[in-house]
Amino acid sequence: MALEPPSEEENRKSQSTAVSMKKFMATKISKSSAGQKAIAHFLGAQGTTIIHSLQQAATKDVGEARAKQLIENVYVLACKGKVLFDSKLITPANTKEFINPINQLAISVFLMLEAKKKQPAKKADVTSVALKFAQMEVMLLNLLKPLIKEKNQAKVSDTVKYFGGPGFLDLLVNDMTYHEYKTTLHRNLKLLINERLEEADLMSPPRLCKKQGCNSEALEEDGKFAGSHYCANHHEEQMKVFLTEPTVHHFLVENGFDYEPFVSMAEKAFPPNSRLLYRGCANYTDASPNIRRIFAEGIFEKYLASNATHPVTCLSEACFADIHKNLRSGDPALFEPCMKELTALFTPIYKQHFMGSEAFKDYCATRKLEKS
Ligand SMILES: [Zn+2]
Which of 78, 79, 166, 343 has most Cβ atoms within 10 angstroms of its Cβ? Predict the structure, then answer.
């Protein structure tokens, strides 16, 4: 006698019980200090420093107990968000919708702090930033309403309203007694934004097409086909060009960017850090105009400045001087000469060490779509 399979209703119930159990545990874990350490690891050094200085500023404003509660909300919600994402109740498409608004919000806070730093005597207007926070609150609640309890929805509102409200923002930016928190935030936000911008393409969930603005799903691995970072249309479009003219560009920023045999060849044979610089430059070109200036400065500080953390020393004097001179221009073509020089440098190495290799042939064979 066969067992009755569980009904859909039962399935749904047991799944939702499992998720609420996980959410309940998430609350417990995020309140413990070990849990906060784990979340801190997830947020990174800058994220943790930012949260810490927000807590100090809030303590000064509303007292220790209330500040502690607000920060606890941040940790609890971050942790619940992760559980919902892991349980697929928040989808990659949901997450992708938030990437741009969150980046824009971080950038607008940064630009407000930066303007104040340059003109300390001028009172900063916090209205437009507060408005962006209010929009973020609406977006978050729309997403979370069906997924979390009313009590927790209220926590989302409370937290965003406090930290993104005109009252707190005004203290933080304009009150001199909050100066140290402001400078810590400014510095860490700058580091965080630069990191994010450079990895902009890695932030899109891998199962969605990497082409900007495209919300189709990326192609899955299937039989001989190795899968793609792009949807069927964009993959085909890219491969058509690549199979006609297989340039190194495809392996630097297009679908081949993480193809292991290419990456390890480039790490050995290309000048140090040059492949990453090329990727940074390509992302800069695609970035929206309002962030190009800080993006350019970030690239310069990381790869080209005399104290760069990832120095690239293979560019010509003229190319370097030109970038340096026009660094703050916001010109979308700022790094074009640099990419040209790098391409000229990479191409002979790529042709000699990679094109025509077994790994190269294998790449072409396993990325070609059957129908084309
Ligand atoms: Zn696409």
Answer: 79
CATH number, domain with residue 349 = 1.10.167.10
> Residue 317: is its pLDDT beyond 60?
yes
280, part of any domain: yes
CA distances from 23 to 2, 90, 223 (A): 35, 13, 38
pLDDT of residue 1: 38
Q: Is residue 128 part of a domain?
A: yes
Q: Are residues 254 and 124 in the same domain?
A: no
- Cα of 231 to ligand 1 centre, how many Å? 4
CATH of the domain at 171: 1.20.1440.160
User: 3-state SS of 200-216?
Assistant: HHHHCCCCECCCCCCCC
- 265 within 8 A of 354, measured Cβ to Cβ: yes
Is residue 262 a contact partner of residue 249, using CB atoms and an 8 Å limit? no
Report how many domains make up the chain: 2
At residue 278, the 3 state secondary structure works out as helix
170 and 282 share a domain?
no
219, part of any domain: no
Domain span at 353 = 232-367
Q: In angstroms, what is the span from residue 246 Cα to ligand 1's centroid?
A: 21
The confidence score (pLDDT) of residue 91 equals 81
> What are the beta bridge partners of residue 222?
225
Count of residues making up the chain: 372
Reported as a single tens digit per residue, the pLDDT across 340-372 is 999 999 999 999 999 999 999 999 999 987 654
190-229: per-residue pLDDT in tens? 888 887 777 654 444 457 898 888 888 888 877 788 889 9
Which of the residue ranges 109-118, 126-135, 264-273 would you say has the lowest mean pLDDT? Answer: 109-118
Do 270 and 170 lie in one domain? The reply is: no
Do 194 and 259 lie in one domain? The reply is no
Ligand 1 centroid to residue 217 C-alpha, Å: 7
Q: Tell me, in angstroms, the distance from the centre of ligand 1 to residue 234's CA.
A: 5
